[in-house]
Amino acid sequence: MNTFAEKYIRAVIELLQQIADEEGPALKKAAKLMADAITGGQRIFAFGCTHSSLPIQDLVYRAGGLMLINPIFGPGVASLDVKPATLTSAMERLVGFAKTLLNNNPIEEGDVLIVVSVSGRNALPIEMAQLAQERGIKVIGVTSRAYTEAVESRHPSGKKMYQFADVVLDNKVSKGDAVLQAEGVPQNFCPASGVTSNAILHALVAATVEELLARDVTPPIILAANVDGGAEYNAKLFEQYGDRIFYL
Q1: What is the pLDDT, as a whole number, of residue 32?
Q2: What DSSP state is assigned to residue 47?
Q3: Cα(242)–Cα(116) distance, rounded to whole angstroms?
Q4: How far, rounded to the nearest angstrom, does the alpha carbon of residue 61 sit from its chain's CA centroid?
């Protein structure tokens, strides 16, 4: 009989296989937006609330990662950085907070904004995507189609985050996110979106690298700082692309 750990790993592998089988066209379309911004001198930003901020953080200043992804962090929603942690759930439902965040970041027309929201139902990620689109910013939304279609919006518009995205990447988790069940446990347990959202965003970076190479553009990729010469290599790239990097 399979252990719970084995079942979890197999469940995640199945979701990743779904992404590989079904999200190729969307990844290619999103990568084109990213490459257009890079070759056109525009900037790339990324945002997520609480746990949806974690896949964003895994992209930023990452060995082997694209150097040009700038995180947008909001007080109280940039992961679990407040106490009590339940406050974060309330803050991501705040109407109007997104406008304050966008107004205090150097994002502008022609840039790209990646927004991660697994359920896509809360006001903050919805308004981040909505306002960005209204300002001429291209939006790449990462969400779960199954989850967001199974819940009601918590925004006055009645809409979900994905409805304001130019491209939607589906992380494939189900409503509630958790993938395991067992007698004696009254609800599903062990979420998968942390794995699948991370994977789909790194796949987006891979697709962007491929698109840039097709345009004869050398992708600005960070070399691991723990590799000899890494710091010197990165310093040259930071200088070259300094006008588009805001996390240093």
Answers
A1: 98
A2: E
A3: 25
A4: 14
Q: Tell me the domain boundaries of the chain.
A: 4-242
Res 30: pLDDT: 98
What would the CATH number be for the domain defined by 4-242? 3.40.50.10490
**Is-above-0.85 flag for pTM?**
yes
Query: Tokens for 176?
Result: 């509630």
Low-confidence ranges of the chain (pLDDT < 70): 1
The amino acid that residue 231 corresponds to is: A
pLDDT digits (tens, 9 = 90+) for 14-38: 999 999 999 999 999 999 999 999 9
Report d(CA 51, CA 77) in Å as an integer.
9
41 to each of 12, 37, 136, how far by Cα in Å? Answer: 37, 6, 15
102 sits in which H/E element: helix 97-103
| SS3 state of residue 182 | coil
Q: Which amino acid is at 66?
A: L
Residue 46, classed as helix, strand or coil, is: strand
